[in-house]
Amino acid sequence: MQIAIYQMDIVPGDVKANHERVSAWMDENVKGKDVDIVVLPEMWTTAYTLPELKDVADVNGEPTTSFLQHIAKKYGVHMVGGSFATVVGEDVFNRACVVNNQGEVVYTYDKIHLVPMLDEPSYLTGGREAGQTFELDGVKMGIIICYDLRFPELARQLALEGAEVMFVVAEWPLARRNHWMALQRARAIENQMYVISSDRCGSYDGTTFSGTSLIVDPNGELVAEGSIEQEEMITGTLDLEEVHKWRKNVPVFDSRVKHLYKDL
Ligand SMILES: O=C(O)CCC(=O)C(=O)O
Fold first, then answer.
1. How many Å apart are CA 51 and CA 110, to the nearest integer?
2. pLDDT tens profile 171-211
3. What ipTM goes with this model?
4. pLDDT 10s digits, 213-223
5. 3-state helix, strand, coil in the chain (%, to 5)
6. Does the Cβ of 147 fall within 6 Å of ligand 1?
7. Residue 90, exposed/middle/buried by CB under 10 A (0-12, 13-18, 19+)?
8. Does 150 contact ligand 1 (Cβ within 6 A)?
9. Given CA atoms 166, 167, 173, 177 in this order, what sign does their dihedral have?
10. For ligand 1, atom 5: residue with the closest CA
11. Ligand 1 center to residue 232 CA distance, Å?
């Protein structure tokens, strides 16, 4: 399974301009190449333009869902389409969307953990359901959004539901890059799965972002690592036998002592 991550910079508040950027990048980097899954970052259609989000965001997932469906079919790739802001009634959600290479939406997830440091709860509504798994090419996967990475419960729940791969789409600040890297490696090791992230690069509103999009294997090793500052494509190959091997050799899921864990 070949992965291509678009570590992109984002035009603030301009959905159309960002669609055009992704289209141009797909043309240059994915067309005719051996790529199975493309991964985009968090809030890639608008960036964190929170005060104006209600005016610039999608409505009921459009036009971005149709855009993702169109490019998935055009290039014959699965799109882990990052997340984007969408107005639904009175609410604005930070919504992840996964579209398969036939152009079918296979999964959507609204970010459940809103970020106090960004005052996200004043502008966004938290999702009402924890993440579930979805399948691409018969492999169970999950997706979480940025701050969700700090909550091991979510990744563990996905692993318990059978996820062998977990995507993290993010706009993670450079100031906490060491957390970004350590938490991804921890989630990969403790759940014995691949963790694949797409983080934005560049700066907005006084924050510089980490970049450093990663592919981490179930042993916690970095299969691929993006730079901090550059827009770039990060690629890597997944060997799912590694997941099976680690789960067999270090059987943590069988060793869990569930009746002693408190449901905090
Ligand atoms: O948890 C962090 O340090 C960053 C979280 C964040 O920026 C986000 O969820 O968008």
1. 19
2. 999 999 999 999 999 999 999 999 999 999 999 999 999 99
3. 0.96
4. 999 999 999 99
5. 35, 30, 35
6. yes
7. exposed
8. yes
9. positive
10. 147
11. 21
Q: From CA 59, how far away is CA 47, in angstroms rounded? A: 16
Q: 30: how many CB neighbours lie within 10 A of its CB? A: 19
Residue given tokens 């959004």 in the structure block: 145
User: Which residues are bridge partners to 99 per DSSP?
Assistant: 79, 105
Residue 180 near ligand 1, beta carbon < 6 Å: no
Known catalytic residues?
Answer: 42, 111, 146
**173 CA → ligand 1 middle, Å:** 7
Alpha helices (H) along the chain = 15-29, 53-56, 64-75, 120-123, 152-160, 177-191, 240-249, 252-255
Alpha carbon 79 to its chain centroid, in Å, reads 11
Q: State pTM to two decimals.
A: 0.97
Q: Residue 176 corresponds to which tokens in the numbers above?
A: 């906490």
Helices 177-191 and 152-160 cross at an angle (nearest 10°) of 30
Distances (CA, A) of 210 to 18, 167, 171, 202, 254: 19, 17, 8, 8, 36
Angle value at C-alpha 212, between 208 and 213, nearest 5 degrees: 120
Helix, strand, or coil here: 248? helix
Domains and CATH numbers, the chain: 2-260 (3.60.110.10)
